[in-house]
Amino acid sequence: xxxxxxxxxxxxxxxxxxxxxxxxxxxxxxxxxxxxxxxxxxxxxxxxxxxxxxxxxxxxxxxxxxxxxxxxxxxxxxxxxxxxxxxxxxxxxxxxxxxxxxxxxxxxxxxxxxxxxxxxxxxxxxxxxxxxxxxxxxxxxxxxxxxxxxxxxxxxxxxxxxxxxxxxxxxxxxxxxxxxxxxxxxxxxxxxxxxxxxxxxxxxxxxxxxxxxxxxxxxxxxxxxxxxxxxxxxx
Length: 235
What we know:
Elements: H1 11-29, E1 36-40, E2 51-58, E3 64-74, E4 80-89, E5 97-104, E6 110-118, E7 127-133, E8 138-139, E9 144-151, E10 159-162, E11 171-172, E12 177-188, E13 191-192, E14 196-197, E15 206-212, H2 216-234
Antiparallel strand pairs: 1-11, 1-15, 2-3, 2-10, 3-9, 3-12, 4-7, 4-8, 4-15, 5-6, 5-9, 6-7, 12-13, 12-14
Helix pairs in contact: 1-2
């Protein structure tokens, strides 16, 4: 009886296969471009006073009323990966802050939440704080989004003042902009009311940081080049 032959790849082929898998793993988790500021009004002077969002605070009628804040921004002509949103805080106290990214609702208010942004839950020391998605998230081109700032609406009381800007000066990429007014909503006994656009043209002070979305053909070409170079080096 003839024993069937078994194909055993040589070491060079095995190494190339391993390198291919390694390159695939690398390019699924590494950005090809560094993070950059897409739009920012952080260089503008602070308005006085800033605005505050808070947990449910007891008022004279016995109700517990809090407030959330939000501000829109518009993306440019190309999609980008969201890296972080940087928010300028004026101080405050307590722990229980969360930042979100919301879709736009008809150009005048936040719509539905898209994702929660991770970062410090107690930015009461004041200063600039970054809040980032836990995974990859692509901002679509020429689209309105809202940065939404929320206090945990439970006792104990907590307050998070956020700076607003005294003018509309902003820097960033072509087509990007920060909305000229912010939105707020009352949260009564834990139940949020409708968003209301501020009558004052004073945007919240923040920046949107992003990275370039790599083209699939570029990623594959670079990955193949790495595999080929590593294979030749081993030989």
